């Protein structure tokens, strides 16, 4: 006899499962010593190709999700990653010992079944079992079949149970994987190369966000978790790689809501010898390609609203968007004081440090964003909110930047990248001043990045895509936590 398994819970149901495991070990049938399976086919393959498999011997493996029958006949539903199939087991075929063990299987157990494929009198494709094996014992029961795992907080904390109980959740994450693979194929075909850059950085720049700080013991120095991929990827443009992208986690020390998680997946790409117009073309083509590739259509529906990626995306300046939706023309506003006055009239909240460009952005967020349902590029942002972007030659108060919107959400952010090291240093100085005034999201000066710009960077277009929001839209998922396998959660003991 082996040592009695440790009991995780004193409830009768769980105790009964521990007792079954002990009985198996006493009989020399410990499932946890088994290291592999003879599985040779998936359940979906059998069902989709029944004529090929009918009356042929197969071996399947998966989790038991239901049991029925009585006496000397049992029916089981076996689920694997592709779907489910019915198992038909008889005392006469398996014998008293094996059938006796099968009768003691619990829902949630992971098993292997050998047998031949047939169709029952009810027309259901099934496997007539000739040999069975328990591969892993489930010591805790799954949620009740007809109620499933519906508690949202518990679903996120125990994603492994969520994936078992809710097939649509599994489908979402399969699609997520296919979306990212499709993005890679598209960019690889455009002669981009995928790279990896540091997550632990001394200077977390490239975005307006508060970083997480950690301590590196070996160097006795504080480091930050990156908030962006930008500054390292631009160094690679300087180095002559010309077309680079990275898909990776970034970390922003901010709140959690339906569209924000403190760690999320960002894709940034940079292409030498183009500008933000080139990035608009690339974005339009990329979204259209991924939707068609993964969903088989360029018309998607999110929360009942239809969006058409097949039509040309709208392009509008931020000034024109505010004029259209707020009735305020910032071309007529000349000073910061005038901007603040009009903000007060429209009850748009601002801070004393804000300038005309900041207030334009606040108007846009307040009045325009929610209307941008169909794919829309919002171009030409004020310089105050764009410290890494080239000025428009004909209007230096604005920069060559766009944000891509769908469903009222910002989906991507792109620039004609600033490659003038003198201008960049001045922008960093302005950011340092904001930092000194208490803006925790302001950038700090990155001397090595400035050194790279002084070596010389070609005219470059760059863009950052929020992968999680893209997956939300393409899978009709209501919250970012529904497309993150393990979203950030508050500890239960807090």
Structural description of this entry:
The protein is an alpha+beta fold. The chain has 2 domains: 12-142, Nucleic acid-binding proteins (OB fold (Dihydrolipoamide Acetyltransferase, E2P)), CATH 2.40.50.140; 164-313 and 374-482, 2-Layer Sandwich (BirA Bifunctional Protein, domain 2). It has helices spanning 12-26, 43-48, 50-53, 91-103, 152-157, 159-165, 167-189, 230-238, 276-295, 318-326, 336-345, 356-368, 421-436, 447-455, 467-475; strands spanning 57-70, 73-80, 83-90, 110-119, 125-136, 193-194, 200-201, 213-216, 221-225, 243-251, 263-272, 299-302, 305-308, 314-317, 376-382, 391-392, 395-406, 409-416, 460-466. Strands 6, 10, 11, 14, 15, 16, 17, 18 and 19 form a 9-stranded mixed beta sheet that branches. The chain has a 5-stranded mixed barrel with strand order 1-2-3-5-4. It starts with 11 loop residues before the first helix and ends in a 19-residue tail after the last helix.
- CATH names the topology of the largest domain as BirA Bifunctional Protein, domain 2
General shape:
elongated
Distance between the termini: 42 Å
CATH architecture of the largest domain: 2-Layer Sandwich
Could you name the CATH homologous superfamily of the largest domain? Bira Bifunctional Protein, Domain 2
Number of helices: 15
What is the CA-atom radius of gyration, in angstroms? Answer: 29 Å
The secondary structure category is: alpha+beta
How many DSSP E strands? 19
Arithmetic mean pLDDT: 93
Quaternary structure: single chain
Fraction in beta strands: 25-35%
CATH class placement of the largest domain: Alpha Beta
Major sheet description: 9 strands, mixed
In the predicted model, the low-confidence regions spanning at least 5 consecutive residues are: none
- Helix share of residues? 25-40%
**Overall number of domains:** 2
């Amino acid at each position: 006899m082996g040592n009695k398994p440790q009991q995780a819970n004193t409830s009768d149901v769980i105790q009964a499962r521990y007792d079954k495991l002990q009985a198996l070990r006493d009989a020399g049938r410990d499932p946890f010593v088994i290291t592999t399976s003879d599985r040779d086919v998936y359940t979906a393959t059998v069902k989709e190709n029944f004529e090929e498999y009918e009356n042929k011997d197969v071996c399947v493996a998966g989790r038991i999700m239901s049991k029925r029958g009585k006496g000397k006949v049992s029916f089981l539903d076996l689920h694997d990653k592709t779907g489910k199939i019915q198992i038909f087991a008889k005392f006469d075929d398996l014998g008293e010992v094996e059938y006796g063990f099968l009768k003691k299987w619990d829902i949630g157990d992971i098993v292997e079944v050998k047998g031949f494929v047939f169709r029952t009198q009810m027309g259901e494709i099934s496997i007539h079992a000739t040999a069975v094996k328990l591969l892993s014992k489930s010591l805790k029961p799954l949620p009740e079949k007809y109620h499933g795992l519906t508690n949202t907080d518990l679903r996120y904390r125990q994603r492994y149970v969520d994936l078992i109980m809710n097939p649509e959740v599994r489908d979402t994450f399969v699609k997520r994987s296919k979306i990212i693979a499709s993005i890679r194929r598209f960019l690889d075909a455009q002669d981009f190369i995928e790279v990896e850059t540091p997550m632990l950085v001394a200077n977390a720049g490239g975005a307006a966000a508060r970083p997480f700080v950690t301590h590196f013991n070996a160097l006795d120095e504080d480091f930050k978790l990156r908030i962006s991929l930008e500054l390292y990827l631009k160094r690679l443009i300087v180095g002559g790689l010309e077309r680079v992208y990275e898909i990776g986690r970034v970390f922003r020390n901010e709140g959690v809501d339906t569209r924000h998680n403190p760690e999320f997946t960002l894709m940034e790409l940079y292409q030498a010898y183009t500008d933000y117009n080139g990035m608009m073309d690339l974005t339009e083509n990329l979204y259209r390609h991924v939707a068609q590739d993964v969903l088989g259509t360029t018309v998607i529906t999110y929360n009942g609203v239809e969006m058409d990626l097949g039509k040309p995306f709208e392009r509008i300046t931020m000034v024109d968007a505010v004029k259209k939706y707020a009735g305020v023309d910032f071309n007529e506003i000349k000073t910061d004081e005038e901007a603040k006055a009009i903000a007060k009239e429209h009850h748009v909240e601002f801070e004393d440090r804000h300038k005309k460009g900041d207030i334009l952005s606040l108007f846009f967020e307040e009045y325009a964003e929610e209307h941008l349902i169909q794919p829309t590029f919002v171009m030409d942002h004020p310089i105050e909110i764009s410290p890494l972007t080239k000025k428009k030659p004909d209007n230096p108060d604005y920069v060559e930047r766009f944000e891509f919107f769908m469903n009222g959400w910002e989906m991507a952010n792109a620039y004609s990248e600033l490659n003038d090291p003198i201008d960049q240093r001045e922008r960093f100085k302005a950011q340092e001043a904001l930092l000194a005034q208490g803006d925790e999201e302001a950038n700090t000066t990155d001397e090595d990045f400035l050194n790279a710009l002084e070596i010389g960077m070609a005219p470059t277009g760059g863009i950052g895509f929020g992968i999680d929001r893209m997956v939300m839209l393409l899978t009709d998922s209501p919250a970012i936590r529904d497309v993150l396998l393990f979203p950030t959660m508050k500890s239960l003991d807090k």
